[in-house]
Design a protein that fits this description.
Blueprint: H1 2-33, E1 37-43, H2 62-69, E2 72-74, E3 77-78, H3 84-93, H4 124-130, E4 134-140, E5 159-163, E6 176-179, E7 182-185, H5 198-212, E8 218-223, H6 235-242, H7 264-288, E9 295-301, H8 327-330, E10 334-337, E11 346-348, E12 352-353, H9 357-365, H10 380-383, E13 396-400, E14 407-412, E15 415-420, E16 426-429, H11 445-457, H12 471-479
Parallel strand pairs: 1-8, 1-9, 2-11, 3-12, 4-5, 4-8
Antiparallel strand pairs: 2-10, 5-6, 6-7, 9-10, 13-14, 14-15, 15-16
Helix pairs in contact: 2-7, 5-7, 6-7
Length: 480
């Protein structure tokens, strides 16, 4: 009788484990057959040279370096603009700043009123929703400056948690954030820097979002605000760098404005390393949930750096920084990881930009973009290692009207041109001269003329963003 019972128990155990194995295999098969999840992580004002994999030797970024080794590193990827609002609009809509609705930050429109995304603009979130994706945005939106009309929930996102405006996103202890269309009090003290560090809050929310949606097909746009001013990070992220006894740079603080931490270099490094740590947590969570191989994760920055003055070499080999159309202001780190799909430890020199993301996401999701005149070109063939199938841009175009603007720029193959209002075209061989130090316009007048003609034709007129000196600039010029 005991032998029979043992045999019966043994049989039940075999059936149980067989059932579990079959269920696990079915889940794995279902997971592998469904459309891939897409996570797009964007830093704010992170320079091309701020990551170890891109040449940084002071700031430690082990998890992002590992992400690049497990995936693909782009060396010629460009932001949508050299400041945040137009750059993010370009990412969302697939248009460069010569055609997009948003071409500048709020204070620099010619009408004097902020220009937000239009409800007629088709965003990448709307495209992915058509393909059955659950869509979420956590972090900085910055495209509903004027009012609530262009909030993420009205632009294709099922869920939003973060900053509505770019100016409030300058502070890491905000007293107000938005959850969907509702403003919520955080209990933080903004200028006293007391409460919950917003970056930590966004990371926690992102991890919860992924866990909640692990059985769906989801798109998460995770728009971190590190390392944008205000220069501030919890002390535990600074400790490893303060031990190095670096020379320190103290930024001025002003009443009611930025209250920077006094140890600037350790703070900046600590901010970048804290973000690196949290990206690592996100990647670990994907593995733990078993959705790692069915998730494309992209990491990049919205434009060039603002803080560094040489100590970190944040712009790498390039001239300029944020608010420049030289490559230091617009060429950015870009890492794509999709285990088993994107070739590991690979590097591409494919020339691409923010406006390519929408058509790329559409191709991944298996839908045609609703807009047929996009400036973007899908870089999915490059991600898959199929360089021979990759379409190339005739050129990339930018325009910008702050400070010394208006200024326009194009990248065409190995050539780069920059054109300030009322001045001749500057021409650079961007491959041989990445620092844009040797202007070849006089020695190559025909090519300079050709680039100038492209610059003229690359944009459509917009009354909000004229190719003229902004009234604020004119006033400054008159007072000189």
């Amino acid at each position: 009788m005991k032998i029979f019972r043992l045999f019966h128990l043994f049989t039940l155990l075999i059936l149980f484990f067989s059932s579990c194995r079959e269920k696990e295999q079915n889940n794995r098969s279902e997971n592998e057959s469904k459309k891939p999840n897409i996570i797009y992580i964007m830093a704010d004002d992170l320079g091309y040279g701020d990551l170890g994999i891109y040449g940084q030797n002071k700031i430690k970024t082990p998890r992002l370096d590992q992400m690049a080794q497990e995936g693909m590193m782009f060396t010629q990827h460009y932001a949508g603009s050299t400041v945040c609002m137009p750059s993010r609009a370009s990412l969302m809509t697939g248009y460069h700043t010569g055609h997009s609705t948003v071409r500048g930050n709020p204070r620099w429109t010619f009408t004097g009123s902020a220009v937000d995304l239009s409800l007629q603009d088709v965003t990448v979130a709307e495209e992915l929703k058509r393909a059955g994706y659950t869509t979420g945005l956590i972090g900085k939106w910055g495209l509903a400056e004027k009012d609530l009309t262009s909030m993420p929930n009205n632009q294709g996102f099922d869920y939003f948690y973060g900053y509505r405006k770019h100016k409030t996103a300058h502070y890491y202890y905000p007293d107000t954030l938005y959850r969907n269309n509702k403003a919520i009090a955080t209990g933080n003290k903004v200028h006293e820097k007391e409460g919950t560090y917003s970056h930590d809050s966004f990371t926690e929310d992102a991890l919860n979002y992924i866990k909640k949606n692990k059985d769906t097909t989801f798109f998460l746009y995770l728009a971190f605000t590190i390392p944008h001013y205000e220069l501030e990070v919890p002390e535990d992220s600074k400790v490893p760098y303060k031990k190095l006894n670096w020379e320190e740079r103290t930024l001025p603080s002003r009443k009611g404005g930025y209250q920077h931490d006094e140890d600037g270099n350790a703070t900046y490094a600590g901010m970048v390393s804290r973000m690196d740590m949290h990206v690592g947590q996100l990647l670990d969570t994907l593995k733990e949930l078993g959705i790692d191989k069915n998730t494309l994760v992209i990491f990049t920055s919205d434009n060039g750096h603002e803080y560094d003055r040489g100590f970190f070499n944040s712009n790498g080999d390039f001239q300029g920084r944020k608010r420049d159309l030289y490559d230091g202001g617009i060429r950015i780190p870009f890492i794509a990881r999709w285990p088993g799909t994107v070739p590991a430890n690979s590097t591409t020199q494919h020339i691409s930009a923010f406006w390519d993301f929408l058509p790329t996401a559409c191709e991944i999701a298996g839908v045609e973009p609703m807009e047929k005149d996009l400036d973007g070109i899908s870089y999915l063939p490059t991600l898959l290692g199929n360089d021979e199938d990759q379409r190339k841009h005739d050129y990339l175009y930018w325009e910008f009207n702050e400070g010394r603007g208006p200024v326009q720029g194009i990248r065409k193959d190995q050539w780069k041109a920059v054109k300030y209002l009322g001045k001749p075209v500057e021409l650079y061989h961007i491959v041989e001269d990445p620092g844009e130090e040797k202007d070849l316009a006089e020695s190559m007048p025909e090519l300079a003329g050709e680039m100038g003609e492209i610059i003229k034709k690359a944009r459509t007129p917009d009354p909000n963003f004229l190719l003229d000196y902004h009234p604020r600039v004119k006033k400054r010029m008159e007072n000189k």
